[in-house]
Amino acid sequence: MTKFQQKVYGALKRIPRGRVTTYGLLAKEVGCGSARAVGQALKHNPDAPTVPCHRVIRSDLTLGGYSGSESGADIRRKVRLLKQEGVAFEGGRLANPKQLFRFGA
DNA sequence: ACATGTTCCTTAC
DNA sequence: GTAAGGAACATGT
Q: pTM for the full model?
């Protein structure tokens, strides 16, 4: 567990239910500025239920990836979880961009 | 829309 | 210590 991961997970847990964030915003929040580093931290997710990585999507409002795959049953589960929290996806994209959560906003 | 470059962190040799 | 990889973003063609 590195400090970077702690920061990423901390910020991730700060995301309220029914909202989602993007790799870019999350990266900016943790102070790295690089979404790829965040993706690495998320894919290493030591505690999946403690770290709602499914609440993190791409800046393109697409799902991006999940469990190391950009498509598959994992992605479907991700959408399902988000939908369960009130975040609907349409056409593989976030139906409501206003549900994007910005840190400090 | 597709291809290329950039940026930061983690892991492997 | 050096090299390669990754759930991305931005820019150019």
A: 0.93
